[in-house]
Structure formats: C-alpha cells, structure tokens
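Reopening: structure tokens for the adenosine-5'-triphosphate complex, inputs below.
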Amino acid sequence: MVEQRVRRIGVFGGTFDPPHLGHLVAASEAAFECRLEEVVFVPAGDPWQKAHIKVTDAAARLEMTRLAIGSDPLFRISTCDIDREGATYAVDTVADVRGEYEGEVELFFIIGADSLENLHTWHRVGELVNAVKFIALNRPGHSRSEVDTSFGIEVEFIDMPAVDLSSTECRQRVADGQPLRYLVPDAVAAFIADRGLYRG
Ligand SMILES: Nc1ncnc2c1ncn2[C@@H]1O[C@H](COP(=O)(O)OP(=O)(O)OP(=O)(O)O)[C@@H](O)[C@H]1O
Ligand SMILES: O=C(O)c1ccc[n+]([C@@H]2O[C@H](COP(=O)([O-])O)[C@@H](O)[C@H]2O)c1
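Re-run output (same inputs, fresh job):
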C-alpha cells in the first residue's frame, strides 16, 4: 500500500490593508525554511483587535491581496474569514482552511513577531495552539525573548531578511503623497491609486 504524504500548508492571516513586501517575503521565507507546499493568504473579515482604527472594506483588501500574490504558484487565497460572519478568530480560520483540503494536512500558522507577542489575548488560544504549529518571523523592534511560550505553543522561528515596513507606514505614505513604489507590488500600488485609498 502506498503511504499518503501529509501535506504541509502555511496559513497566513492578516488584515492586509494593504499587503506589502514584508508579507510576501515572510510567506516566501516561511515556505522555503519549513518546506511548505502552499501558503494560504487569508484576509481577515473583521479584525476585532483593530476595531479602534479605520480598516478598508474587505472586498478591497481581498482584491489587493489577490493582486499582491499575482500568479505565484506557491500562494493562494482563502476567503473563509471574509465569508464568515462576526469577529475574525484564528481558531476558526484554521478549522475552515483545514476543511478546504481532502485528507490529512499539517497546518502552520505564519505570524510576525509582533503578533506572536499578543497571542495570549487571542480567542480560545488553547484550542488554537493545539490545532497548529506556528512559524514566527522576525520583525524590526520585536525580539524572540518577549514571546511567552509557556502555554504549550509549538513555534519555529525563522530569520527572514528584515523588512522594516508595515501597512500603517504604507497608508501614511499615501496620505503624505509619498510613493509606494517597490514597497508594495506595482499592481497593488495601481489599485490604491485608482481607488483613491488612504488619501486621508
Ligand atoms: N514587515 C514584516 N515583517 C514580518 N512580519 C510581518 C511584517 N508585516 C506584517 N507582518 C506579519 O504579517 C501578519 C499580518 O500583518 P498585518 O496585515 O496586520 O500587517 P501590518 O503591517 O502589521 O499592518 P498594520 O501596520 O496595519 O498593523 C502579522 O502576523 C504580522 O506580524
Ligand atoms: O483569534 C484571535 O482572537 C485573533 C486576534 C488578533 C489577530 N488574529 C489573527 O492574526 C492575523 C494577523 O492579524 P492582524 O490584525 O495583525 O492583521 C489574522 O489572521 C487575524 O485574524 C486573531
């Protein structure tokens, strides 16, 4: 009997408002270092921890994420978090993405060091850490030592070439009339310009 290989899949959730080169490098490095056969980008429907800031509508963030990954065969999108009603919880993301595959898959949640520091505040985090392993990426200003791994989380740290860039900075640059050239894929910059996003 031929033994079935367990597929190794990365789950990369984010608000992606907008997606930028930090996200793409993080996904690519995680896939390479952890031998993932696919990375699923999952734009958040309702990122509840960002309720205090204005978040661009989900359809536009989804379209920008589609444009950002382009035709890269390693990347795909899941709309599960946008399709689900209510606050977006990673524990639901992981269950829904698992349901998109037939057979056994091993899921790895890709996360920046800044988000990892807040993991203890996430909804039903005990269930989440039992359901997935984490791949954590360095982010300027955040160090591994600040991460609490005491609650049973399995995490592999990857040292990617540091990208000192955030979606906040991208939005601010547009508001200030500065270019996004080479900070986001060209197609994303064109979409932002066409739609007049982030102009303040
Ligand atoms: N430059 C980066 N390097 C490494 N990880 C990143 C980087 N930017 C974002 N991430 C990670 O990608 C995931 C999704 O991030 P998100 O979409 O919130 O982008 P962001 O740049 O952090 O946005 P914002 O500035 O609006 O908070 C998070 O796990 C975050 O830590
Ligand atoms: O599950 C939670 O409670 C939870 C709280 C905050 C963030 N997340 C997830 O973390 C990912 C990155 O979120 P963000 O807000 O940094 O873009 C995205 O998939 C979110 O749904 C999840």
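The domain at 7-195 is CATH 3.40.50.620 (Rossmann fold). The chain has a mean pLDDT of 95. Marking as resolved unless the reporter disagrees.
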